[in-house]
């Protein structure tokens, strides 16, 4: 089921210019929603800490993601930065199993390693409840085509800023260089372990450095 997010139709017509690119929460909300089990609720809310609107995601036993299809040049903009905040984890235990593959916060990047839809590969950056930060493992639904990478673990009192060199992460996890991203996505889900997960997303920013 999860593998559908990594193998979406990637015959893209949109080519993103080679410059800094920002997706605001309002723009992310307009992305196509892909449903796996029920529907995660995504909506804009004001955030007093950041002083602007952010994207709130609440999943009650559901899983649906918002994704953008468009070719992004990693030679020009290899860095991705964003802010996120966790409010509530679902009731999962081992997040590395299918039964526990639920996350309050996920940010995906998707590349193509060939000419077909089945050649897509992805990194899913996640905020975990149990798995220590820095660990990575194959997605239990998609296997080695989609690698999970834990950036944060457990509760936090506020927003956390992330910044990743995507080319470096892709090279480390898949053993080769990729020139282009083909898709970007976010998802908050709680369909496997049940319960409710709540998280917040700020801007997603692609940049040269």
Description:
With 209 residues, this protein is mainly beta. It has a single domain, classed as Jelly Rolls (Sandwich). It has 3 helices and 13 strands, in the order H-E-H-E-E-E-E-E-E-E-E-E-E-H-E-E. The strands form 2 sheets. A 7-stranded mixed β-sheet has the order 2-5-12-7-8-10-9. It is globular and about 40 Å long. The N terminus is likely disordered.
Q: What is the CA-atom radius of gyration, in angstroms?
A: 16 Å
User: What is the straight-line distance between the termini?
Assistant: 35 Å
Low-confidence stretches: 3-14
What is the correct CATH architecture?
Answer: Sandwich
Helical proportion?
under 10%
Average pLDDT figure: 91
What is the string of helix and strand elements?
Answer: HEHEEEEEEEEEEHEE
Helix and strand topology:
Elements lengths: L2 H4 L14 E3 L1 H5 L2 E6 L3 E7 L4 E9 L2 E11 L5 E10 L16 E8 L7 E9 L7 E4 L3 E11 L6 E6 H9 L5 E10 L6 E12 L2
Parallel strand pairs: 8-10
Antiparallel strand pairs: 1-13, 2-5, 3-4, 4-13, 5-12, 6-11, 6-13, 7-8, 7-12, 9-10
Please name the defining characteristics of this protein.
mainly beta; six-stranded antiparallel sheet; 3 helices; Jelly Rolls; 13 strands; 209 residues
């Amino acid at each position: 089921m999860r593998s559908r997010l990594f193998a979406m139709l990637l015959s893209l017509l949109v080519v993103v210019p080679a410059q800094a690119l920002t997706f605001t929460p309002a723009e992310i909300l307009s992305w196509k929603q892909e449903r796996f089990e029920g529907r995660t609720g995504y909506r804009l809310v004001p955030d007093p800490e950041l002083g602007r609107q952010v994207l709130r995601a609440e999943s009650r036993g559901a899983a649906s993601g918002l994704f953008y299809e468009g070719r992004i040049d990693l030679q020009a903009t290899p860095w991705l930065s964003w802010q996120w905040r966790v409010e509530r984890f679902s009731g999962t235990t081992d997040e590395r199993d299918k039964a526990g593959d639920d996350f309050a916060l996920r940010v995906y990047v998707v590349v193509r390693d060939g000419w077909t839809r089945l050649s897509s590969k992805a990194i899913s950056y996640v905020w975990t409840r149990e798995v220590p930060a820095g660990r990575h493992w194959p997605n239990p639904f998609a296997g080695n085509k989609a690698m999970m990478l834990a950036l944060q673990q457990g509760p936090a009192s506020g927003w956390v800023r992330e910044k990743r060199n995507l080319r470096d992460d892709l090279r480390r996890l898949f053993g080769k260089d990729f020139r282009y991203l083909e898709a970007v996505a976010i998802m908050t889900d709680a369909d496997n372990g049940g319960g409710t997960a709540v998280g917040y997303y700020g801007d997603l920013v692609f940049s040269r450095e």
